[in-house]
Amino acid sequence: MIKSMTGYGRGSARYEDLQLTVEIRTVNHRFAEVVLRMPKEWMAYEDLVKKIVLSHISRGRAEVQFSFGQGTVSKKVVSIDEAYALQVYQAITRLAVQLNQRTDSFFEQVVSFPGVLQVTESAVHEQALRDLIVDGLEEACHALDGMRREEGQSIREDLARRLSDLERMVADIKRLAPTVVSAYRERLEQKVRDLAPAGTVDEQRLLSEVVIFAERSDIQEELVRLHSHMQQFKHILEVTEPVGRKMDFLIQEMNREMNTIGSKANDARIATQVVECKTRLEQLREQVQNIE
After folding, report:
1. Is 229 within 8 Å of 254 (Cβ atoms)?
2. Which CATH class is domain 7-73+124-148?
């Protein structure tokens, strides 16, 4: 199924009180590119994130944003060194006795003494964090795929319609092609009769000129190749793999054949059809730039 290169996907995952949100936006790009917006301490997971995203896209620029709805990656943990606190308390008490001071208000002084209370950060377990990232990212990628497939279906229908228009126009050119030589012969004979004295027309020379013109204006090979390209284009509209580059190449080939037809045909009616065909090809080319 054809996929659009543009789309948006959102996913989320939770671990304890940590809520992670992942957003992916994709836009047109000639190659596959992934741009990450994630905390610096997560850069160890950069390759993992890119690998997952690139398993879902083969062309386009993807911007991946990680954010937290609540909770933090690390938690503050408060602990007390009881043995050290007891030593501080005993030392202060002995000094108070020697100085004849009260000893009933030393608690606040003890707990505020450097080293008694310790604050440390307990990070989310590495495997838990990895799972959190993968779960949120996969959900966002699947949502992105759904949107790109839906948009791709609309593009496929448009491409099929424009291709049908092109096939009808090429059929008209094919129908007109055999009349080009006969029309040229009639014009040539009329000019010769108008200019040459009666009875002096060289029929053999006239026939030679018509044969030369027929060879120069023969577009059958181009029409056969053009038909083949259109059939290939129609076929890849139905495949499931990425087809953007193949379609782009086929349109270039069809344009080349159409240019040759226009230069060889020497017929105003065919020239008009060629212009219309090239317009359809340009419309196809612009639309193909939007698909993977």
Report:
1. yes
2. alpha beta
Domain regions of the chain by residue span: 7-73+124-148, 74-123, 150-288
Q: Tell me the pLDDT of the chain (292 aa) as tens digits.
A: 789 999 999 999 988 777 889 999 999 998 899 999 888 878 889 999 999 999 999 999 999 999 876 555 555 556 787 887 788 777 878 877 777 776 666 677 777 778 777 765 545 567 878 888 999 999 999 999 999 999 999 999 999 999 999 999 999 988 888 776 566 565 655 665 555 555 555 566 656 655 565 556 678 888 999 999 999 999 999 888 889 999 999 999 999 999 988 887 777 888 899 999 999 999 999 999 999 9
Residue written as token pair 């030593």: 87
